Amino acid sequence: MRIKIKNRTEIDKLRAANIIVRDVLSLCGDLIKPGITTWDLEKASREYIEKVGAKSAFYKYQPAKTMQPYPAVLCTSKNEKVVHGIPSKKEVLEEGDILSIDFGVIKNGYCGDAARTFAVGNISETARNLMTTTKASLEAAIKKMLHGNRLSDIGHAVQTVVENDGFNVIRDFVGHGIGQDMHEPPQVPNFGRPGRGLKLQNGLVLAIEPMVTEGDWQVDIREDGWTVVTKDRKLACHFEHSVAITEEGPFVLSA
Ligand code: MF3
Ligand code: CO
Q1: How far apart are alpha carbons 117 and 235 in whole angstroms?
Q2: Which ligand is nearest to the CA of 177?
Q3: 76 CA distance to ligand 1 middle (Å)
Q4: How far is the CA of 229 from the centre of ligand 1 (A)?
Q5: Torsion angle, CA of 244/245/251/252, rounded to 10 degrees?
Q6: How far apart are CA 50 and CA 127, in angstroms?
Q7: Is the CB of 59 under 6 A from ligand 1?
Q8: From ligand 2's centre to the CA of 176, what distance in Å?
Q9: Which of 18, 76, 199, 252 measures 20 to 30 Å from 239, CA to CA?
Q10: How much distance in Å is there from the Cα of 58 to the middle of ligand 1?
Q11: Among 3.40.1640.10, 3.40.50.2300, 3.90.230.10, 3.30.200.20, what is the CATH number of 8-252?
């Protein structure tokens, strides 16, 4: 697949889809408290997209024939889970947990995709720092979304912020182009030397998604075939925005 540059009309449609994503993430944020399950969040999200006439971009998503179709509309990744955690009635949130929620929709043929990590009640100082750093790394990356910069400037910005704060970035999963497909080229790594790769241009839309770990960046995949956990079982955090490069600068579609 070739990289697709979007015009103003397409960016407006991507914005509309990403507003739904943003609103579902805030809705989940409002529901999060000790005692609820990740399935409660899944249910509320399903009801919301039904109401606004959008389709999940994740449900039944199957990136390869060898993989099981993804069984939910949300990815809920608690503590040592990095990404692609599957919501469950048995997974109860407890005070001190951190929970990453990743969500995507298709609305009028265009995709939205974003993720946020939430605190459940009071959390440890390390967990708080990990969240602050991951968010800051995403913000630093968004600032690089300028016509004329290079693709690797994005990952370099993420890695610099993260490693300066003593955390690590996941290597095995990356951000991506987004448009009529949730995953379009190019891939957007969260690490690397600056000044390399594709020249960024107006109309390019990317989902930038730093996945950051408290300890080492190596991961395992659970038996369900989806859930990614840190090998050392230390905490992980994930923030994602879909961002368009425009003449007026970076346009954060999912904010
Ligand atoms: N939001 C994820 C991404 O950015 C996709 C989740 S995978 C799925 O790549 F299977 F849940 F859809
Ligand atoms: Co994504």
Answers
A1: 12
A2: 2
A3: 11
A4: 15
A5: 50
A6: 34
A7: no
A8: 6
A9: 199
A10: 6
A11: 3.90.230.10
CA distance 227 to 238: 14
155 in contact with ligand 1, CB cutoff 6 A:
no
Q: Using a 6 Å cutoff on CB, does residue 118 contact ligand 1?
A: no
59 CA: nearest ligand 1 atom = 12
pLDDT at residue 1, as a whole number? 85
Q: Assess contact for 194 and 37: CB atoms under 8 A.
A: no
Q: Note the pLDDT of residue 183.
A: 98
The pTM (predicted TM-score) of the whole model is 0.98
pLDDT at position 234 over 90: yes
The tens digit of pLDDT for each residue in 110-164 reads 999 999 999 999 999 999 999 999 999 999 999 999 999 999 999 999 999 999 9
Question: Residue ranges of the domains in the chain?
Answer: 8-252
Report residues near ion ligand 2: CB below 5 Å: 113, 207
Please, which residues bridge with residue 104 across strands?
Answer: 113
Which atom from ligand 1 is nearest to the alpha carbon of 183?
9
* Gap between the Cα atoms of 121 and 25, Å rounded: 17
